[in-house]
Amino acid sequence: METPTWPRVPCPEAAVARMLLLGWVLLQVAGASGTTEVVVAYNLTWKSTNFKTILEWEPKPINHVYTVQISPRLGNWKSKCFYTTDTECDLTDEIVNDVNQTYEARVLSYPADATDYSGEPPFTNSPEFTPYTETKLGLPTIQSFKQVGTKLNVTIQDARTLVRRNGTFLSLRDVFGKNLSYTLYYWKASSTGKKTAKTNTNEFLIDVDEGESYCFSVQAVIPSRKSNQKSPESSIECTHHKKEILLGIVIVVLVAVILTSILSVTLYKCRKGRAQQSGKESSPLNAA
Ligand SMILES: *[C@@H]1O[C@H](CO)[C@@H](O)[C@H](O)[C@H]1NC(C)=O
Ligand SMILES: *[C@@H]1O[C@H](CO)[C@@H](O)[C@H](O)[C@H]1NC(C)=O
Ligand SMILES: *[C@@H]1O[C@H](CO)[C@@H](O)[C@H](O)[C@H]1NC(C)=O
Ligand SMILES: *[C@@H]1O[C@H](CO)[C@@H](O)[C@H](O)[C@H]1NC(C)=O
Ligand SMILES: *[C@@H]1O[C@H](CO)[C@@H](O)[C@H](O)[C@H]1NC(C)=O
Protein backbone atom coordinates (compact mmCIF):
# COMPACT_ATOMS: atom_id res chain seq x y z
CA MET A 1 0.00 0.00 0.00
CA GLU A 2 1.40 3.34 -0.99
CA THR A 3 1.32 6.07 1.59
CA PRO A 4 1.48 9.46 -0.02
CA THR A 5 3.99 11.83 1.56
CA TRP A 6 4.24 15.70 1.26
CA PRO A 7 7.08 15.99 -1.27
CA ARG A 8 5.89 13.34 -3.65
CA VAL A 9 2.35 14.59 -4.04
CA PRO A 10 2.52 18.22 -5.09
CA CYS A 11 -0.59 19.73 -3.60
CA PRO A 12 -0.95 23.54 -3.80
CA GLU A 13 -3.63 23.72 -1.05
CA ALA A 14 -1.34 21.95 1.43
CA ALA A 15 1.54 24.30 0.60
CA VAL A 16 -0.65 27.36 1.17
CA ALA A 17 -1.95 25.88 4.40
CA ARG A 18 1.61 25.24 5.58
CA MET A 19 2.66 28.78 4.76
CA LEU A 20 -0.32 30.23 6.58
CA LEU A 21 0.47 28.06 9.59
CA LEU A 22 4.09 29.19 9.57
CA GLY A 23 3.02 32.82 9.28
CA TRP A 24 0.61 32.43 12.20
CA VAL A 25 3.30 30.84 14.34
CA LEU A 26 5.73 33.66 13.52
CA LEU A 27 3.07 36.26 14.41
CA GLN A 28 2.44 34.55 17.74
CA VAL A 29 6.14 34.56 18.58
CA ALA A 30 6.47 38.23 17.58
CA GLY A 31 3.36 39.08 19.60
CA ALA A 32 4.66 37.25 22.64
CA SER A 33 8.07 38.91 22.53
CA GLY A 34 6.29 42.27 22.04
CA THR A 35 4.39 41.70 25.27
CA THR A 36 7.48 40.80 27.27
CA GLU A 37 9.14 44.01 26.07
CA VAL A 38 6.42 46.10 27.73
CA VAL A 39 7.94 47.65 30.84
CA VAL A 40 6.08 47.14 34.09
CA ALA A 41 5.61 50.03 36.52
CA TYR A 42 7.59 50.16 39.76
CA ASN A 43 7.85 52.34 42.84
CA LEU A 44 4.08 52.84 43.12
CA THR A 45 3.51 55.57 45.72
CA TRP A 46 0.39 57.16 47.22
CA LYS A 47 0.57 60.95 47.58
CA SER A 48 -2.37 62.13 49.65
CA THR A 49 -3.09 65.36 51.56
CA ASN A 50 -6.50 66.23 53.07
CA PHE A 51 -7.88 63.32 50.96
CA LYS A 52 -6.65 64.69 47.62
CA THR A 53 -5.04 61.45 46.47
CA ILE A 54 -2.68 60.72 43.59
CA LEU A 55 -0.92 57.47 42.72
CA GLU A 56 2.56 57.94 41.26
CA TRP A 57 4.91 55.42 39.67
CA GLU A 58 7.93 54.99 37.42
CA PRO A 59 9.23 54.83 34.70
CA LYS A 60 8.30 57.38 32.01
CA PRO A 61 6.86 55.19 29.20
CA ILE A 62 8.73 54.89 25.92
CA ASN A 63 6.83 52.42 23.79
CA HIS A 64 3.91 51.62 26.06
CA VAL A 65 0.98 53.17 27.93
CA TYR A 66 -0.54 52.62 31.37
CA THR A 67 -4.01 52.08 32.75
CA VAL A 68 -4.69 52.26 36.50
CA GLN A 69 -7.17 50.15 38.40
CA ILE A 70 -8.41 50.68 41.95
CA SER A 71 -10.52 48.55 44.22
CA PRO A 72 -11.72 48.52 47.83
CA ARG A 73 -10.53 45.45 49.71
CA LEU A 74 -13.51 43.26 48.81
CA GLY A 75 -14.70 45.14 45.75
CA ASN A 76 -14.31 45.10 42.00
CA TRP A 77 -11.52 46.67 40.00
CA LYS A 78 -12.40 50.00 38.43
CA SER A 79 -10.23 51.41 35.63
CA LYS A 80 -8.99 55.00 35.62
CA CYS A 81 -6.54 57.05 33.53
CA PHE A 82 -6.96 54.84 30.44
CA TYR A 83 -3.92 54.28 28.19
CA THR A 84 -2.05 57.21 29.68
CA THR A 85 1.55 58.23 29.06
CA ASP A 86 1.62 59.98 32.48
CA THR A 87 3.22 58.44 35.54
CA GLU A 88 0.50 59.60 37.94
CA CYS A 89 -3.25 59.18 38.29
CA ASP A 90 -5.67 61.19 40.44
CA LEU A 91 -7.79 58.70 42.39
CA THR A 92 -9.48 61.24 44.70
CA ASP A 93 -12.94 60.65 43.20
CA GLU A 94 -12.72 56.94 44.03
CA ILE A 95 -11.37 57.10 47.59
CA VAL A 96 -13.76 59.84 48.80
CA ASN A 97 -16.65 57.41 48.35
CA ASP A 98 -15.53 55.77 51.59
CA VAL A 99 -12.49 57.19 53.34
CA ASN A 100 -12.49 54.38 55.94
CA GLN A 101 -12.01 51.67 53.28
CA THR A 102 -8.65 50.12 52.53
CA TYR A 103 -7.83 50.42 48.85
CA GLU A 104 -5.43 48.71 46.53
CA ALA A 105 -4.44 49.96 43.09
CA ARG A 106 -2.48 48.41 40.23
CA VAL A 107 -0.82 49.83 37.15
CA LEU A 108 -1.22 47.84 33.90
CA SER A 109 1.23 48.22 31.01
CA TYR A 110 0.08 47.98 27.36
CA PRO A 111 2.05 48.28 24.12
CA ALA A 112 1.54 51.83 22.77
CA ASP A 113 0.13 50.65 19.42
CA ALA A 114 -2.36 48.06 20.71
CA THR A 115 -5.41 49.71 22.25
CA ASP A 116 -7.55 46.68 21.32
CA TYR A 117 -5.13 44.47 23.23
CA SER A 118 -6.91 41.31 24.35
CA GLY A 119 -4.29 39.45 26.37
CA GLU A 120 -3.56 39.75 30.09
CA PRO A 121 -1.30 42.80 30.40
CA PRO A 122 1.55 42.76 32.92
CA PHE A 123 0.85 44.87 36.01
CA THR A 124 2.24 45.95 39.38
CA ASN A 125 0.28 46.22 42.63
CA SER A 126 0.42 49.29 44.84
CA PRO A 127 0.77 49.17 48.62
CA GLU A 128 -2.57 49.25 50.45
CA PHE A 129 -3.95 52.68 51.30
CA THR A 130 -6.51 53.69 53.95
CA PRO A 131 -7.37 57.38 53.47
CA TYR A 132 -8.78 57.99 56.97
CA THR A 133 -5.55 56.98 58.70
CA GLU A 134 -2.98 57.72 55.99
CA THR A 135 -3.86 60.96 54.23
CA LYS A 136 -1.45 63.68 55.33
CA LEU A 137 -2.74 66.78 57.09
CA GLY A 138 -2.39 69.91 54.96
CA LEU A 139 -0.84 73.21 55.99
CA PRO A 140 -3.34 74.96 58.30
CA THR A 141 -4.36 78.58 57.72
CA ILE A 142 -4.94 81.16 60.47
CA GLN A 143 -8.29 82.70 59.63
CA SER A 144 -8.31 85.53 62.17
CA PHE A 145 -6.81 86.61 65.49
CA LYS A 146 -7.46 89.30 68.03
CA GLN A 147 -5.74 90.40 71.21
CA VAL A 148 -7.98 92.16 73.71
CA GLY A 149 -6.65 92.90 77.19
CA THR A 150 -5.13 89.70 78.56
CA LYS A 151 -6.79 87.41 75.98
CA LEU A 152 -5.53 86.30 72.59
CA ASN A 153 -8.14 84.72 70.33
CA VAL A 154 -6.88 82.73 67.32
CA THR A 155 -9.27 81.10 64.84
CA ILE A 156 -8.12 78.44 62.35
CA GLN A 157 -9.79 78.02 59.00
CA ASP A 158 -11.60 74.69 58.69
CA ALA A 159 -10.18 73.36 55.41
CA ARG A 160 -12.66 71.98 52.91
CA THR A 161 -12.01 68.44 51.70
CA LEU A 162 -13.28 66.63 48.61
CA VAL A 163 -15.11 64.12 50.81
CA ARG A 164 -18.85 64.37 50.28
CA ARG A 165 -21.77 63.37 52.40
CA ASN A 166 -25.35 63.97 51.30
CA GLY A 167 -24.07 65.98 48.33
CA THR A 168 -22.08 68.54 50.34
CA PHE A 169 -18.33 68.73 50.81
CA LEU A 170 -17.15 68.01 54.34
CA SER A 171 -14.57 70.08 56.18
CA LEU A 172 -11.56 68.48 57.85
CA ARG A 173 -13.38 68.87 61.20
CA ASP A 174 -16.50 67.15 59.79
CA VAL A 175 -14.43 64.15 58.72
CA PHE A 176 -12.21 63.75 61.79
CA GLY A 177 -14.49 65.07 64.53
CA LYS A 178 -12.82 65.32 67.93
CA ASN A 179 -9.92 63.20 66.64
CA LEU A 180 -8.51 66.34 65.07
CA SER A 181 -6.81 68.85 67.33
CA TYR A 182 -4.64 71.90 66.81
CA THR A 183 -1.48 73.00 68.59
CA LEU A 184 -0.68 76.70 68.98
CA TYR A 185 2.96 77.72 69.38
CA TYR A 186 3.20 81.27 70.74
CA TRP A 187 5.82 83.61 72.11
CA LYS A 188 6.30 87.24 73.07
CA ALA A 189 7.56 89.19 70.07
CA SER A 190 10.34 90.48 72.33
CA SER A 191 11.60 87.00 73.33
CA THR A 192 12.12 83.53 71.90
CA GLY A 193 10.72 81.31 74.71
CA LYS A 194 7.90 79.35 73.07
CA LYS A 195 4.75 78.14 74.80
CA THR A 196 2.15 75.74 73.44
CA ALA A 197 -1.61 75.39 73.77
CA LYS A 198 -3.95 72.70 72.46
CA THR A 199 -7.58 72.66 71.38
CA ASN A 200 -9.92 70.15 69.79
CA THR A 201 -11.96 72.94 68.23
CA ASN A 202 -10.75 75.47 65.65
CA GLU A 203 -10.36 78.25 68.22
CA PHE A 204 -7.79 79.22 70.83
CA LEU A 205 -8.43 81.63 73.68
CA ILE A 206 -5.24 82.02 75.72
CA ASP A 207 -4.04 84.26 78.52
CA VAL A 208 -1.36 86.75 77.55
CA ASP A 209 0.33 89.77 79.13
CA GLU A 210 -1.53 92.98 78.48
CA GLY A 211 0.21 95.41 76.17
CA GLU A 212 2.71 92.84 74.85
CA SER A 213 2.88 91.75 71.23
CA TYR A 214 2.77 88.03 70.48
CA CYS A 215 3.74 85.88 67.51
CA PHE A 216 2.32 82.43 66.84
CA SER A 217 1.80 79.58 64.40
CA VAL A 218 -0.51 76.55 64.40
CA GLN A 219 -0.27 72.87 63.52
CA ALA A 220 -3.00 70.26 62.94
CA VAL A 221 -2.59 66.99 64.89
CA ILE A 222 -4.41 63.65 65.05
CA PRO A 223 -3.05 62.19 68.32
CA SER A 224 -4.61 58.72 67.74
CA ARG A 225 -2.52 58.15 64.61
CA LYS A 226 0.74 56.25 64.66
CA SER A 227 2.19 58.00 61.61
CA ASN A 228 1.41 61.15 59.65
CA GLN A 229 0.23 62.60 62.96
CA LYS A 230 1.10 66.24 62.34
CA SER A 231 0.68 68.80 59.58
CA PRO A 232 3.42 71.28 58.72
CA GLU A 233 3.35 74.47 60.84
CA SER A 234 1.37 77.40 59.48
CA SER A 235 3.01 80.69 58.61
CA ILE A 236 3.73 82.96 61.58
CA GLU A 237 1.39 85.82 62.53
CA CYS A 238 2.04 88.56 65.07
CA THR A 239 -0.18 90.91 67.04
CA HIS A 240 0.95 94.51 67.35
CA HIS A 241 0.17 95.85 70.71
CA LYS A 242 0.11 99.23 72.49
CA LYS A 243 3.84 99.99 72.67
CA GLU A 244 4.31 99.00 69.05
CA ILE A 245 1.17 100.81 67.95
CA LEU A 246 2.38 104.02 69.65
CA LEU A 247 5.83 103.62 68.14
CA GLY A 248 4.18 103.01 64.76
CA ILE A 249 2.15 106.22 65.01
CA VAL A 250 5.23 108.21 66.00
CA ILE A 251 7.17 106.80 63.03
CA VAL A 252 4.36 107.52 60.59
CA VAL A 253 4.05 111.13 61.84
CA LEU A 254 7.82 111.64 61.67
CA VAL A 255 8.02 110.25 58.15
CA ALA A 256 5.11 112.47 57.08
CA VAL A 257 6.77 115.56 58.56
CA ILE A 258 10.11 114.80 56.91
CA LEU A 259 8.49 114.07 53.54
CA THR A 260 6.47 117.29 53.68
CA SER A 261 9.50 119.43 54.45
CA ILE A 262 11.59 117.80 51.70
CA LEU A 263 8.75 118.30 49.25
CA SER A 264 8.20 121.96 50.11
CA VAL A 265 11.92 122.73 49.91
CA THR A 266 12.12 121.04 46.52
CA LEU A 267 9.04 122.85 45.24
CA TYR A 268 10.42 126.17 46.47
CA LYS A 269 13.79 125.60 44.74
CA CYS A 270 12.04 124.42 41.63
CA ARG A 271 9.82 127.47 41.41
CA LYS A 272 12.78 129.75 42.01
CA GLY A 273 14.76 127.94 39.31
CA ARG A 274 11.95 128.20 36.80
CA ALA A 275 11.53 131.92 37.52
CA GLN A 276 15.25 132.50 36.82
CA GLN A 277 15.11 130.38 33.66
CA SER A 278 12.09 132.17 32.18
CA GLY A 279 13.90 135.44 32.90
CA LYS A 280 16.88 134.20 30.83
CA GLU A 281 14.69 132.86 28.01
CA SER A 282 12.93 136.15 27.59
CA SER A 283 16.18 138.08 27.18
CA PRO A 284 16.92 137.07 23.51
CA LEU A 285 13.40 138.13 22.58
CA ASN A 286 13.94 141.41 24.22
CA ALA A 287 17.21 141.81 22.30
CA ALA A 288 15.55 141.02 18.93
C1 LIG B 1 11.94 54.42 44.28
O1 LIG B 1 11.73 55.71 44.85
C2 LIG B 1 12.62 56.03 45.87
C3 LIG B 1 12.24 57.38 46.41
O2 LIG B 1 11.02 57.81 45.98
C4 LIG B 1 14.04 56.03 45.36
O3 LIG B 1 14.92 56.29 46.42
C5 LIG B 1 14.35 54.68 44.74
O4 LIG B 1 15.62 54.72 44.17
C6 LIG B 1 13.33 54.34 43.70
N1 LIG B 1 13.58 53.01 43.18
C7 LIG B 1 13.93 52.79 41.94
C8 LIG B 1 14.12 51.36 41.58
O5 LIG B 1 14.07 53.70 41.15
C1 LIG C 1 -14.41 56.58 59.77
O1 LIG C 1 -14.19 55.83 60.93
C2 LIG C 1 -14.13 56.58 62.14
C3 LIG C 1 -13.83 55.65 63.27
O2 LIG C 1 -13.07 54.58 62.86
C4 LIG C 1 -15.44 57.29 62.36
O3 LIG C 1 -15.37 58.06 63.53
C5 LIG C 1 -15.74 58.18 61.18
O4 LIG C 1 -17.00 58.77 61.31
C6 LIG C 1 -15.70 57.40 59.88
N1 LIG C 1 -15.80 58.34 58.80
C7 LIG C 1 -16.57 58.16 57.72
C8 LIG C 1 -16.61 59.26 56.74
O5 LIG C 1 -17.21 57.13 57.55
C1 LIG D 1 -12.79 84.54 68.74
O1 LIG D 1 -12.83 85.08 67.41
C2 LIG D 1 -13.82 84.49 66.59
C3 LIG D 1 -13.69 85.08 65.21
O2 LIG D 1 -13.54 86.47 65.23
C4 LIG D 1 -15.19 84.68 67.19
O3 LIG D 1 -16.15 84.03 66.38
C5 LIG D 1 -15.23 84.08 68.58
O4 LIG D 1 -16.47 84.33 69.19
C6 LIG D 1 -14.11 84.68 69.44
N1 LIG D 1 -14.09 83.96 70.71
C7 LIG D 1 -14.11 84.58 71.88
C8 LIG D 1 -14.13 83.70 73.07
O5 LIG D 1 -14.10 85.78 71.97
C1 LIG E 1 -28.36 62.75 54.91
O1 LIG E 1 -29.60 63.38 54.73
C2 LIG E 1 -30.69 62.65 55.27
C3 LIG E 1 -31.96 63.39 54.92
O2 LIG E 1 -31.72 64.46 54.07
C4 LIG E 1 -30.52 62.53 56.77
O3 LIG E 1 -31.59 61.79 57.33
C5 LIG E 1 -29.19 61.83 57.08
O4 LIG E 1 -28.98 61.81 58.47
C6 LIG E 1 -28.05 62.56 56.41
N1 LIG E 1 -26.85 61.77 56.59
C7 LIG E 1 -25.74 62.28 57.09
C8 LIG E 1 -24.64 61.33 57.25
O5 LIG E 1 -25.63 63.45 57.40
C1 LIG F 1 -10.60 58.43 66.14
O1 LIG F 1 -9.70 57.54 65.52
C2 LIG F 1 -9.67 56.24 66.09
C3 LIG F 1 -8.62 55.45 65.39
O2 LIG F 1 -8.57 55.71 64.02
C4 LIG F 1 -11.03 55.59 66.00
O3 LIG F 1 -11.00 54.34 66.61
C5 LIG F 1 -12.04 56.51 66.66
O4 LIG F 1 -13.31 55.96 66.51
C6 LIG F 1 -12.00 57.88 66.05
N1 LIG F 1 -12.94 58.74 66.73
C7 LIG F 1 -13.64 59.64 66.11
C8 LIG F 1 -14.56 60.44 66.95
O5 LIG F 1 -13.58 59.81 64.90
How would you portray this structure in words?
30% of the residues lie in helices and 34% in strands. Mean pLDDT is 83; it is low at 1-10, 20-36 and 280-288. The strands form five sheets. The protein has a four-stranded antiparallel sheet with strand order 4-3-6-7. The chain has helices spanning 12-37, 92-95, 131-134, 172-176, 242-287, and strands spanning 42-49, 52-58, 64-72, 78-84, 88-90, 103-111, 123-125, 142-148, 151-156, 160-165, 168-171, 181-188, 195-199, 203-207, 214-221, 237-238. The structure holds 2-acetamido-2-deoxy-beta-D-glucopyranose (5 copies). The site of one 2-acetamido-2-deoxy-beta-D-glucopyranose has 6 residues, from strand 8, strand 9 and strand 14.
CATH architecture of the domain at 141-239: Sandwich
Tell me the fraction of residues in β-strands, as a range: 25-35%
Please give the order of strands in the largest beta sheet. Answer: 4-3-6-7
CATH topology of the domain at 141-239: Immunoglobulin-like
CATH superfamily of the domain at 141-239, by name, is Immunoglobulins
